[in-house]
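INTERNAL TRANSFER SHEET
From: sequence group
To: structure group
Subject: Mediator of RNA polymerase II transcription subunit 22

Please process the attached sequence and return the structure record in the designated field. Keep the field labels unchanged so the import script can parse them.
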Amino acid sequence: MASGSRSTILPQSKEALLKSYNARLKDDVRSMLENFEEILKLARRESHSQISKTTQCEQDALEMQVRAANMVRAGESLMKLVADLKQYLILNDFHSVNEAITNNSQLFRATQIECDKKLMKLRDEMAMDLYDLEEEYYTSIFK
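Return from structure group:
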């Protein structure tokens, strides 16, 4: 499995967190499967016990309800796990965040260079215009 190579990349705490997510996933799926199998067994069971058929049906129905509730709990736990995994990916997807920052930095750097060029051109034009005005002033007869 890739977890061996992943441990060299991920810090210990992140590796432990991913292992706990994996354990939660396995536990919840196992719980849903076991409860579903038990519901099927209860639905197919033919009673050979000393309990009356009505009492046995009521007892089976109650057990099915408990098992169904366990399946719902496991399903909700899986949904929480999906939300936790999404949050983990958002918080730990530094590669794409760094890529976006790099792209924005390059864009802003290009814009800055363009603005700097325009400002330097404007500075040079103003300097030339001021030089021309100064030259005209000193050569003018209306001083």
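Handover comment: Helices lie at 3-9, 12-44, 53-92, 94-139. DSSP finds four helices and no strands in the chain.
Transfer complete.
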